[in-house]
Design goal:
298 residues, mainly alpha, 78% helix, globular
């Protein structure tokens, strides 16, 4: 039983799962609404749709992985292609069902998110639009949290989503940068991608922590500190990959970029005035690191 569980953990990349709840929580904070039952539905929907994307990703890449990553669960024969596709479909259905529990606006955003996930894995991954599709998925995931929380709170869903657009753009931009770097993690490549991602990271860190310049409150200091943690988490391995864009260092840069989503989400939550939520999201960092030692997030 343990080898089979291990295979599914690898297929679903469970160590990266800890980067998901912060999307909805940051979205709720950015919308200016206290987390509620709608937020919980959004987190559940996000987790399901994220894992659906992971299973579908390996199903779509099974021929490529047979050459470049023969140890992956499908090419190694530990999980059948049919089982992976069925898991992707089932998880998508579960995610949409949970999104619908928060109301029709949340179901609409969840449907758009599911469409982005399936479009990326099946059609757009190896096209110039691939990174943009991945960034759109993360942005929509944050907006799902904003919409679901607003629907169950005092703010109209559309108003909450509009207020969270800035935070969604920040998270989406980071995702685009990491996705561009990930395209060369198997064979390595030029220093251009990690260097560009390093510039994006620095810019987003400054943009997110800018509140510190306007005021010296505890919330501002927390926001600035978390933005600095984000920049360091993503920036250090990106700098190493820019100096030596070999496959191992590029993979570390991608892993660092994935883990950096957690302090970025925490910084966005703090910027929205939810200090407790920010600290709670940050608490997922050690769990992500512990699981990453057992199952690679990339």
């Amino acid at each position: 039983m343990r080898p089979r569980l291990r295979a599914w953990a690898e297929l679903l990349r469970v160590s990266a799962l800890f980067t998901v709840p912060g999307d909805a929580l940051a979205g709720a904070a950015a919308a200016g609404v206290r987390a509620n039952r709608g937020t919980a539905y959004a987190v559940g929907a996000s987790l399901c749709l994220y894992e659906a994307g992971m299973a579908l990703n390996d199903w779509a890449d099974r021929d490529e992985d047979a050459v470049d990553r023969p140890h992956r669960p499908i090419p190694s024969g530990r999980i059948t292609p049919g089982a992976a596709l069925a898991a992707a479909a089932g998880l998508t259905a579960a995610g949409l069902a949970l999104a619908s529990r928060a109301g029709r606006p949340s179901l609409a955003v969840g449907t758009a998110l599911a469409a982005a996930v399936w479009s990326y894995d099946l059609r757009l991954k190896h096209t110039p639009a691939g990174p943009l599709a991945m960034g759109a998925a993360r942005s929509l995931d944050l907006l799902l949290g904003a919409t679901a929380t607003s629907s169950r709170g005092a703010r109209p869903a559309a108003a909450g989503a509009r207020k969270a657009l800035g935070a969604a753009g920040v998270l989406g931009a980071h995702t685009v940068a990491v996705t561009v770097v990930s395209r060369q993690e198997a064979q390595g490549g030029s220093a251009a991608a990690p260097l560009a991602a390093l510039g994006v990271t620095a810019g987003l860190g400054v943009l997110t922590g800018w509140r510190l310049r306007a005021e010296r409150s505890a919330a501002a200091l927390l926001t600035g500190g978390l933005a600095a943690v984000y920049a360091k988490t993503a920036g250090k391995p990106l700098a190493h990959a820019a100096l030596n864009p070999s496959p191992p260092l590029t993979q570390r840069a991608v892993g660092g970029g994935i883990r950096a989503m957690i302090p970025l989400q925490a910084a966005l939550a703090a910027r929205g005035g939810a200090a407790g939520t920010a600290l709670g999201v940050l608490g997922l960092v050690p769990l992500a690191r512990a699981f990453a030692r057992k199952v690679s997030p990339t």
